């Protein structure tokens, strides 16, 4: 006999505890697995083709990968990348501050600088600095429209290495200025106004409130630009700066083994960009602390979790 509820309707029958719950069946995703299998086959085919093709000259690659000339060129590439990044961002931060200034002169000069150096190819800039002696045979220090305190021959002052550094730094500063400016503008202006209302100085607001939040958008773009700078230093080989690419070019001009020597440079660029990508990941993870409740797991943590899940 069924019982009635207060509304006069029959009460729902109690579920039988002995009845098993309905079984849940996940989606099969057949198309996804077929696509994955096709991709794996294509990747294995490509790796096999590259590994077994004698035209790549892998024994020659192994022979020259750690030679002294290549390592010296690699050292030049590394210090050019580091110096360009540090000096370029130091100048870029100043340009970003000028662009955000209420002073129309400073803002206009910063805009003109960014416009000019972003509009000119890097190769043209390098060739310009390399041939600066044709425009200014002698450089002097003095008061404008006044006496000079000394002069020097620009040909001896600006050599290939300094011309490469000047071209790279001035070119990168234009992009760094826009990265920093975009990161600062991405922070809610109300936070800076609230901090100013509490009596904090503008410098302290910038250092303690704005920049820590702006770094979340600055770091990814900066990491990409540093990696681009590392590979972009290869262009200095056109003005005879002995970077890693110029080093392998010097070798294959003597041995005529062009493909294996280009692969030597490629392997080193892949290694360095991979290391920079790992560093970028951990820097981004560090600055994500204030935006997420918990930090994303590192690749090693993900691997350990999958291994533990598979073992369980």
TrEMBL record:
This is Amino acid ABC transporter permease. NCBIfam families: HEQRo_perm_3TM. Keywords: Amino-acid transport, Cell membrane, Membrane, Transmembrane, Transmembrane helix, Transport. It comes from the Bacteria. The keyword Glycosyltransferase does not apply. CDD domains: TM_PBP2. Residues 1-24 are annotated as: Disordered.
